[in-house]
């Protein structure tokens, strides 16, 4: 009786010793030592199992159960201790690994489209949404395409509106606008309806300065059909302005003159910098000129192969660089083709 | 065109505030570019500070309490100064002594009290005016000062001091009826509208033209100046004759005569108006011609009749109009002897040329202060000839400006009559009771039939025939309504209305302008859409651009204009090809931009050069056309290329990687390989290239399938020397966009993702140095068969272990079957087949 009571007490001690020792453990290596000492083959609790044969039969069950409980308790304690140690170790590691997050990041090599491409794409995308198709035409043109067929006869005062680069080939010039594309598109598509955007580079014989370039992009719109009105032109350009500059962008159409459109208009947009209150960008006026437009002139329709008595159309021209200059406050148009990387990398 | 408000008011009642007036004109196509105040208050004064400045306002506002009309009752000598006088002046509040140096008062000095007081513009102490002694317009405030012992705190003003003109010779002498004591602004405060005249609106380059537009816009009556020839008076019969040799050059020629004139300074208000409109007063005869030109838009020319009589040998002169003979000469009134071209039209008499028709008068027959009889010309000219003459002679006269854009012949007669009347009013003299008028070619003032449907079809607004006629009537068209149609006859002052469909469009523009663009609704296009249309070239261009951007390259866009010697830098100096044919400008802005580029690569290298010192890493590309003239075509070919240039650090440097390696051949090759797979081109092939611009050992031609896409490699050192570049090698490529388009795979399939695990193994083989890697890899693929899925070169070794002239290539291989897990035996078999192939095809041996 005493023996068995002794064994049960001994098991209590074994458990207590084990737990006490475990509390002293501070790292993984000690933990392995503890495991050998308290749960290994020669550990005290294991010795109790080994001595089972010598325990009176009637007590065996009770001792066995108790020994098992002690063993399980030690194992659980070991797991808990191990978890605590892992957590503590991780916390020490995380604390030690603190970076100076203000150091600069490692830059990926990344490229950009040229700002003129970006502006051109942005404008084209809006018109493509409205059902317009991109149509490209040559940059070197005949005078006939660039002027005569657009209702600008030689010696007409309107010729003064374009300073032209002539080539040594008589009658061949650098196009002064994308408008010759109107004739090309019409001749290709007549008598079908047309909705095209004509983007591309145009050239002017003009001394370059901060606001004038000898080469710049234009985006021209052309819609031809049997029911196209000036009201449609207004609606189309107003929609464009809202998509390009925001829902509140207000536009204004002022009568103007272009030989290839009639009626013709200049399109002003309420200055998006100051909201029309007047600022440096709009020179205080509250309005920005963004392009010219009008109903396609009957002579031009005729030259394109459309009967002006049946068909009508509108055309509009926008300057992507100018729009980009307004939008990003670019002060000098010459930046565009100077290609200084310090400029290009800002887009 | 400068339009003084006061002058405009001669023809139309205007009660609109200045800004509303400017806006009304602007929104009708007469853009007001500037409002120059000449006394009137600033329209923005008193408005909230954040009011947009819709119009640019300049000039001076005269303070009503500081600047007034005053009268000088006596001009007295200054006790201490000969060049100054003292004026006894009354400004309506009392008598003041004012000091002035104005030379135009000296004639009254010491004459005692004047029988007729002199009316002047008087500025009191504290007045803000322009400083008359400084160049330009410098504002100053009048302060009390002591000049030569006399107190001075106020002054009598010149035009310059009041911002009327730059005239500072003497003070303004107002007309005698100017009311003493009244604020000057109320008496003659004014504003000048600077109106931009569109090329098709030359009819509005006059006071009446602008007034007529306003009348139409505001629905107000227009008051034409009343002018007619005297009912009694001498007749011109036998006094002058006209011979027009070609009516297409000179559709009309009108002559009038006034005798007994005395050229003298014009009345002050005439001089002031001329100055405000930008012209310099000369004398009352010349001023009358300029005044009426500005008033009506018809340029006129005054001849000294006595000079013409003398040239005609004492008889009556005959005016002849004709084209100039080649080499004919005329000295114009600016004193320049001009050699004439056959397109120039001349006004001549029997003795020879008198003036350049519609452009400038001749020196000899010009009116002078001695002129007593004036023969006045009003004519109509072919605008093309005037334009060509003015352009050729570089003469931008007011007359040429108008005639080169087309002036209606009806104005010739109106102008002459009006001018004769004004000339006689301002210069004295007797106007003859008739004119000599040759009018061989009256214009057809078109009559246009316009329907309600036409207006609806083009403008998208509903106007009935009555409303259409009403609008056109306001512009002086004569209209007849017939059902839903209007028959509109063009008024005889404009040449810009065509016939047929053009005429309809011309009228519709006028209707839209007067109706107001702002009143036309905005609608969405309702017309049927065209069929969808694809532009494969554009799409592939976009894909290439997007791919290169994703690969870390910066797009640039260059001038397409360049110089041949600039492009020639692409070749080593000793290996330059003959200069190719360029599309060359006839009128280049400078020699550096004289031809259209033939090479996109040359263009890109220019940019690389410009940026060489700005960035340690340059990875640039450009997509764009080059221009190749062709013998068999009028226009050049404009093929589109893509050029790439890499130079400098391979990656952006970082604080832990300050010197990444330089870009080399394989960086660009990798970019091109990725481009090929990104665009799903046919498999790429690389062959050593021989290109004069490139390093012979570090360059390759790029093929996709059978299509040659272009060439790439390291820039030849001798070429690199041509550019101002730094140490790092420059790796470039130039690819033909059309070829890229052609080599796209029309169809492609995806492979299923493998289910069974792969077997990975490495193999290293030793081959001769000159065996290209691509041949080794080809043998591996052929030996491996369909179970071989991937081959990746991971190491190249050269060294003593394997002997000279040899290299070891180490590959990582992936074997895989679609339907089972490969066994070790199968893998060994594949390996054996590969080794056999390598031994046979490239004489390889396995590295131990």
Automatic annotation (TrEMBL), chain B:
It comes from the Bacteria. GO terms for biological process: phenylalanyl-tRNA aminoacylation. Residues 754-847 form the FDX-ACB domain. Its cofactor is Mg(2+). InterPro entries: aa-tRNA-synth_II/BPL/LPL, B3/B4_tRNA-bd, DNA-bd_dom_put_sf, Fdx_antiC-bd, Fdx_antiC-bd_sf, NA-bd_OB-fold, Phe-tRNA-ligase_IIc_bsu, Phe-tRNA-ligase_IIc_bsu_bact. Its main location: cytoplasm. Keywords: Aminoacyl-tRNA synthetase, ATP-binding, Cytoplasm, Ligase, Magnesium, Metal-binding, Nucleotide-binding, Protein biosynthesis, RNA-binding, tRNA-binding. It holds the Pfam family tRNA_synthFbeta. GO terms for molecular function: ATP binding; magnesium ion binding; phenylalanine-tRNA ligase activity; tRNA binding. One of its GO terms (cellular component) is phenylalanine-tRNA ligase complex. Mg(2+) binds at residues 496, 506, 509-510. Residues 443-522 form the B5 domain. It is found in: Cytoplasm. Residues 61-185 form the TRNA-binding domain. Binds 2 magnesium ions per tetramer. SUPFAM superfamilies: Anticodon-binding domain of PheRS, Class II aaRS and biotin synthetases, Nucleic acid-binding proteins, PheT/TilS domain, Putative DNA-binding domain. It catalyses: tRNA(Phe) + L-phenylalanine + ATP = L-phenylalanyl-tRNA(Phe) + AMP + diphosphate + H(+). Its EC number is 6.1.1.20. Tetramer of two alpha and two beta subunits. Belongs to the phenylalanyl-tRNA synthetase beta subunit family. Type 1 subfamily. HAMAP family: Phe_tRNA_synth_beta1. This is Phenylalanine--tRNA ligase beta subunit. The gene is pheT.
